[in-house]
Amino acid sequence: MNREIAVFDSTLRDGAQGESVSFSVSDKLKIVEILDDLGVAYIEAGNPGSNPKDMEFFSRVSGLRLKNARLAAFGSTRRSGKTAAEDENVRSMLRAETPVAVIFGKGWDFHVTKVLKTTLEENLNMIRDTVAFFKKEGREVIFDAEHFFDGARANEEYAFQTLRAAAEGGADGLVLCDTNGGSYPFEIFELTKKAVGRFAVPIGIHCHNDDGMAVANSVMAVEAGASHIQGTLTGIGERCGNANLSSLIPTLQLKRSYSCIPGECLRRLTEAARLVAELANMPLPSSMPYVGLSAFAHKGGMHIDGVLKDTRTFEHVEPKSVGNERRFLMSEVSGRSTVLAKIRKICPDLDKESPEAKEIIDLLKDMEHKGYQYEGAEPSFELLVRRHLGKYKPFFDLEKSTIIEDLTSRNGGRSSLATIVVNVEGERRISAAEGDGPVNALDCALRRALETFYPELGRVHLTDYKVRVLNPEEATAARVRVWIESTDGTDVWTTVGVSTDILEASGRALTDAIEYKLLKTIERKFKPFI
């Protein structure tokens, strides 16, 4: 189809309204650069009149030189009974000096009378006047018809009158908003098609995800003729979130041949989504389509066998097309071919008849008998294989660790203290750190000691920690399996440790996490020369 679709990202405004999401000014500036590199057309930066943080952000963001995106300030129509020039919120948007102004106005007569407490005619005047004001000031104006679909169900004629008022004011785009997120795809399609047929102005779509269909609804709007899509990169937003652009963009671009972002940028989608999730302090769900860690993970033996023969058997798109990667999970149902595929990634010359391959498979069975489970913890398995094959030299040796638990801190809380000794190529380093619990203290002490030798560890931190008791009938002598998930802000990896001592199991998983990060850093550094 090759029809151009303008991508409008609202992570900094709508996304920031999600529960537990709070971006600093520095976070917002980083996200602007990430989204611009991704090639989105618009970045909705927030409401400059809503709080001091946004005011500071707008004063600083003007110093960025963007390659692809246009910044947009967001705000409402003027208040009833005032002119646009008299309304302070309108004036604050103007002072933001963004090239684009996004004006939202009521598209539902119920909201006009019950929330704004004004007349239907005055609401139309408010929309028309505010849009015209920004057009006279030389801004590109996008009108968001808030609650448009609920409004159309209640009073379709009036809902379309609000769009007409914005068009008469000179709006450059009319966006239909499913603000309550409860519409069905067929409703979105029919009403969007009507809007496209009635107005020469480009029509956009803005969907919330309260019924779980924000992406589907947005796709149907595009199929009906919309040429502008709004959402947030990871789907975050108020209540159940917004349309997830990391799903919506590749679906439209790879499956329907719409042009949403530059082709070369699509391969940066996974990295961009994970970076934004990290800045939002909300780990990306592993099951998220296209960009999640499990999006192209295969576990069943028949599935893996099929993918090894032809990836189209169990993958709907090529993982590299969105910057993700294929993973084969090891478990009791994954089969021998999975293990061999993992081994070949480390040592390509080995085949199923190689004695080393049989040794590693036997080793795997022995480790699983001890309680290890490498499904989802492939980094620990890779290190196990490298050690067995003699293809690995540890980056450090943890010679000693001592942990004192439950210290009383100055603020009355409880904490732990870890003291460690590490050896890096003959140079010993002693380090101590306090933490919220023994594992956190050990993590902090270990990274503090090693950052002197390996500064890249400064970007690494734990994002998840899980413990499972494997044989509870043994009571205090039971073995435990510890899973640790780590990230450096771009990549995410999980390691595993097993022991009858929870601290020893945690130490093994933690050591693997750090060793794996250092191994991959070295591989990437020297890959061009291999």
Task: State the gist of this model.
With 530 residues, the chain is an alpha/beta fold.
Textual characterization of the structure:
The chain contains 17 helices and 16 strands. It is elongated, with a radius of gyration of 27 Å. The model has no long low-confidence stretch (mean pLDDT 90). An 8-stranded parallel beta barrel has the order 1-2-3-4-5-6-7-8, surrounded by 7 helices. It is of the alpha/beta class and 530 residues long. Helix 8 (214-223) packs parallel to helix 9. It has 3 domains: 6-279, Aldolase class I (TIM Barrel, Alpha-Beta Barrel), CATH 3.20.20; 297-389, no CATH class; 397-529, Alpha-isopropylmalate synthase LeuA, regulatory domain (Double Stranded RNA Binding Domain).
Uncertain residue segments: none
Look at the structure and name the CATH superfamily of the largest domain. Answer: Aldolase class I
Distance between the amino and carboxyl termini: 41 Å
Given helix and strand content, the structural type is: alpha/beta
The share of residues in helices is 40-55%
Radius of gyration: 27 Å
What is the level 1 CATH name of the largest domain? Alpha Beta
Number of strands: 16
The appropriate CATH architecture of the largest domain is Alpha-Beta Barrel
Shape: elongated
How much of the residues is beta strand, in percent?
Answer: 15-25%
